[in-house]
C-alpha cells in the first residue's frame, strides 16, 4: 500500500435535527459571532429565524453573500468586522457562504492584511499564516464539500479573471453541522448542480493519481449514495429526509476525499471557465462530468494492462470483484456505470455552457488552459475540446 497523509477532519455532527448543536458549539469559542449566510432559501425555510433565536444569548453580527465570493466581498466583510472582536465565524448556506466565511475567518487574523488577493494561490505573493478565528460550517446545500476542506475558492470574473484558492491546513473548519433538514427547501436546480459537483468530486478524487486507501474507502460508499438519491430529491421526493441525508453525507465525504486525494480534469477545466464567465461552479462541473468520465474511461479501457489499478477501482463501485479485462461482462459493467452517470446528468438537464454567453471560440482556450492534474490519463487538448463541445 502507498504511503499517504490525511489532514484533520472537522469535528462534525451529522443527521436530522443536529442543528440543535449549534449554540453549544458557538459557546466553546466565545460570545461574539459573525454569521455569514446566503440567506434566501434559508430564510424561506424558516430555519434562519430558528437559528437566530437559538443564538439570542450571543452578540450576533450578520453578513449576506448572494454570489460566489470575490476579493472585494471578502475584503469588505473583513474591514467591516475588524473591530467587532469576533470570537467565531459561523457560515450557514451553500458553498459560496461557506467559502466566504472560511476566507473571512482567516483574513480577520492575517496581521499584514491588505487584500485576500495577496494570499491566493497563483495570484498573490504572500503565504497565508494559517492563523484564523474559529470557524463553523453549516451547509444548506449538498455540493462543494467546503464544510470539510482546507480551501476557500475566490473568483474575479472577466477576460483576465481567475478562480483560485486561499488554502492552508488550518482552514479546515473547527466544526461542521450537517443537518439534511436544512437542504429540504433548496430549489431543484441548485440541488441538481450541487449534487453533480459533489459526484464529480467523489469520482475525480477516487481515480486521482493521488488517491489513497483512506479516501478510497470513503468514496466507494459515497458514490452510489449520491448516484441513487440525487434524481429523486430533485424531482419526485424533495422532502425525503433519508435521501436528502444520503446526498448531504456524500457531499461531505467529497470534501474529505478532494482535500486529501485531489481532483482531476473536470475541476481543472472548471477553474478556467469559472474565472472567465459567471456560471455557477456546480453547473460547470455537472455539465462536464459525464463526458469527462466517458473520455477517461475509454482511455483507461484502451490499455487495460497499464491502467488495471484504475479499472479495478471502478469495478469496486459496480460490485465486481476485481477487474478481469478478458471478461467482457466486467467491461460492460464499467460501461454501464458510465451510462448511469450520463443518464443522471441528462435527467437533471442543467443549462448548457452557451446559455451563459460562452461562445464556441472560447472552448479552444479552455481546452488548452484546463489542467489535467491528477487525471489517471493525460487528456489531450483535442480530447478536452470534445468534452467541452458536448457540454456547450
Ligand atoms: Fe467542485
Can you offer a commentary on this structure?
- The structure is a single chain.
- The protein is of the alpha/beta class.
- It has two domains: 11-183, Rossmann fold (3-Layer(aba) Sandwich); 188-391, Up-down Bundle (Dehydroquinate synthase-like, alpha domain), CATH 1.20.1090.
- It is 49% helix and 11% strand.
- It has helices spanning 22-27, 40-45, 47-54, 71-81, 95-107, 188-206, 213-234, 241-261, 265-276, 281-301, 308-317, 328-348, 360-369, 381-391, and strands at 11-14, 32-37, 59-64, 88-93, 135-139, 151-156, 162-167, 175-178.
- It has a six-stranded parallel sheet. A two-stranded antiparallel sheet has the order 6-7.
- Strand 6 and strand 7 (162-167) form a beta hairpin.
- Helix 13 packs across helix 14.
- The longest helix is centred in the middle third of the chain and has 22 residues, at 213-234.
- The radius of gyration is 20 Å and the shape is globular.
- The two termini are 40 Å apart.
- The model has no long low-confidence stretch (mean pLDDT 94).
- Residues 144, 197, 201, 267, 281, 285 line the site of fe (ii) ion.
- The site of fe (ii) ion has 6 residues, from helix 6 and helix 10.
Amino acid at each position: 500500500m502507498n504511503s499517504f497523509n490525511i489532514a484533520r477532519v472537522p469535528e462534525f455532527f451529522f443527521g436530522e435535527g443536529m442543528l440543535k448543536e449549534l449554540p453549544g458549539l458557538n459557546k466553546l469559542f466565545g460570545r461574539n459571532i459573525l454569521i455569514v449566510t446566503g440567506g434566501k432559501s434559508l430564510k424561506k425555510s424558516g430555519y434562519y429565524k430558528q437559528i437566530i433565536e437559538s443564538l439570542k444569548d450571543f452578540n450576533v453580527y450578520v453578513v449576506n453573500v448572494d454570489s460566489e465570493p470575490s476579493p472585494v466581498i471578502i475584503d469588505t466583510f473583513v474591514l467591516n468586522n475588524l473591530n467587532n472582536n469576533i470570537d467565531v465565524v459561523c457560515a450557514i448556506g451553500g458553498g459560496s457562504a461557506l467559502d466566504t466565511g472560511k476566507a473571512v475567518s482567516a483574513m480577520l487574523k492575517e496581521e499584514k492584511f491588505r487584500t485576500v488577493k495577496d494570499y491566493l494561490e497563483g495570484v498573490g505573493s504572500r503565504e497565508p499564516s494559517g492563523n484564523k478565528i474559529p470557524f463553523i460550517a453549516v451547509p444548506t446545500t449538498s455540493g462543494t464539500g467546503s464544510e470539510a476542506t482546507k480551501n476557500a475558492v475566490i473568483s474575479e470574473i472577466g477576460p483576465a479573471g481567475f478562480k483560485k484558492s486561499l488554502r492552508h491546513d488550518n482552514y479546515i473548519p473547527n466544526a461542521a453541522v450537517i443537518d439534511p433538514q436544512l437542504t429540504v427547501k433548496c430549489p431543484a436546480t441548485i440541488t441538481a448542480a450541487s449534487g453533480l459537483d459533489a459526484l464529480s468530486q467523489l469520482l475525480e478524487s477516487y481515480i486521482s493519481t493521488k488517491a489513497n486507501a483512506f479516501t478510497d474507502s470513503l468514496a466507494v460508499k459515497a458514490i452510489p449514495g449520491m448516484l441513487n438519491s440525487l434524481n429523486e430529491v430533485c424531482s419526485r421526493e424533495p422532502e425525503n429526509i433519508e435521501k436528502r441525508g444520503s446526498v448531504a453525507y456524500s457531499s461531505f465525504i467529497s470534501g474529505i476525499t478532494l482535500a486529501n486525494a485531489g481532483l482531476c480534469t473536470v475541476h481543472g477545466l472548471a477553474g478556467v471557465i469559472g474565472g472567465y464567465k459567471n456560471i455557477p461552479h456546480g453547473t460547470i462541473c455537472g455539465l462536464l462530468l459525464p463526458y469527462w468520465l466517458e473520455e477517461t474511461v475509454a482511455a483507461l479501457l484502451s490499455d487495460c494492462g497499464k491502467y488495471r489499478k484504475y479499472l479495478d477501482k471502478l469495478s469496486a463501485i459496480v460490485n465486481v470483484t476485481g477487474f478481469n479485462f478478458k471478461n467482457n461482462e466486467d467491461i460492460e459493467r464499467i460501461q454501464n456505470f458510465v451510462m448511469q452517470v450520463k443518464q443522471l446528468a441528462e435527467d437533471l438537464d442543467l443549462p448548457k455552457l452557451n446559455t451563459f454567453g460562452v461562445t464556441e471560440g472560447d472552448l479552444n482556450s479552455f481546452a488548452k488552459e484546463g489542467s489535467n492534474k491528477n487525471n489517471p490519463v493525460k487528456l489531450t487538448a483535442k480530447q478536452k475540446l470534445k468534452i467541452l463541445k458536448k457540454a456547450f
